[in-house]
Write a structure and sequence with these properties.
4-stranded antiparallel β-sheet, 4-stranded mixed β-sheet
């Protein structure tokens, strides 16, 4: 997707992500929406030349044209000297699953939304690990009308910014900046996807939004455990895949082993896809309205252009549910190795 989630350089160790409960923020409020809007961005761009800046702006334009959520997402972009790309997100919010499910139902607009909701049960506990909660990124929460503002992201040597995410790109090793083999557009889109909400909580305490659509077989959701084994498809772990119809259709396969890449990214494809965890540099990937990454953003709460709201009749936004603010900063490592890792 044209956005702000970029490829990062692969490293031997998996990127760190710290989850720590900070404070109760109070009642979750459902915010009113205008009938028509576009997703907008408030961005700071640091250290890129004119060509690199144009790539970032083109990526952002895709999201604004594709999604009509009346929210503004704040992101800082900076040109990194090492690695390929990296990102850090604002602290995660822990939200009652029942509240998030009701918000998704009220926000449904597309055929894909309706298919996904038919396979996402209305109940107290989430269907992934049976806890009462899910964790949302700040922009994702606001897309479905929850009060989840961006906050301070303070990662030494990488980011000190108040917003929804920080993204670093090494323009010099991309085809845009230095004649390198890696697409800067794909890298930027990869990271924007994650700032907006894609990714997995596998290996942590609670599932993230996209984990509601993570399957290991038809009708069988993931066991939500880290997988150290890297056997399986493309050598990237036991089969886990993205599906919106209860596991009947595999829309794309998740990277699912402890190989230093994200569990929420795809396995390596030839030609490469935007959300591949480790890119082999083939092809020139970019997002379209039908890309699996775009579908994923749609079903976790974003509204695709050209659709009109058709809420589920039984959906009710649960006012009064408590939202917990959780520090969930994802930091990418710089180091290069053979192949490039999409953080």
């Amino acid at each position: 997707m044209l956005g702000v989630r970029c490829f990062r350089a692969a490293s031997a160790a998996r990127r760190g992500l710290r989850l720590k409960s900070l404070a109760l923020l109070g009642l979750a409020l459902v915010m009113g929406r205008p009938a028509h809007a576009n997703l907008t961005f408030n961005v700071t761009i640091i250290g890129f030349d004119a060509a690199g800046t144009a790539v970032i702006n083109n990526a952002l334009a895709f999201y604004s044209a594709t999604f009509t959520d009346p929210i503004t997402v704040a992101i800082q972009f900076h040109n990194m000297a090492t690695g390929l790309n990296a990102s850090s997100i604002a602290p995660l919010y822990t939200v009652d699953y029942s509240q998030y499910r009701a918000a998704l139902g009220a926000d449904a607009t597309s055929a894909d939304d309706n298919t996904a909701l038919a396979n996402t049960p209305v109940q107290a506990n989430n269907p992934v690990n049976a806890s009462a909660s899910v964790q949302l990124k700040s922009a994702n929460g606001r897309a479905v009308g929850l009060n989840t503002p961006g906050t301070l992201i303070n990662i030494a040597g990488f980011c000190n910014y108040t917003g929804d995410g920080c993204i670093g790109i090494n323009e010099a090793i991309t085809s845009t900046g230095g004649g390198g083999p890696y697409s800067m557009l794909a890298a930027v889109e990869h990271e924007i996807d994650e700032v907006l909400g894609l990714g997995s909580g596998v290996g942590f305490s609670q599932p993230w939004a996209e984990d509601l659509f993570r399957y290991s077989a038809n009708g069988v959701r993931t066991n939500f455990l880290s997988n150290a084994s890297c056997s399986g498809p493309s050598g990237q772990g036991p089969l886990n895949y993205f599906s919106i119809d209860g596991g009947a259709t595999n829309l794309d396969t998740f990277n699912n082993c402890d190989n230093g890449a994200d569990y929420g990214d795809w396995v390596t494809h030839t030609p490469s896809q935007v959300q591949d965890a480790i890119t082999n540099g083939t092809g020139n990937p970019f997002l379209t309205a039908s890309s699996p990454e775009t579908v994923a953003l749609d079903v976790i709460g974003y509204t695709r252009a050209g659709t009109a709201p058709v809420p589920e009749p039984t959906s009710v936004i649960l006012l009064g549910s408590v939202v917990v603010f959780v520090a969930g900063v994802k930091k990418r490592r710089a180091g290069m190795r053979k192949g490039q890792q999409l953080a």
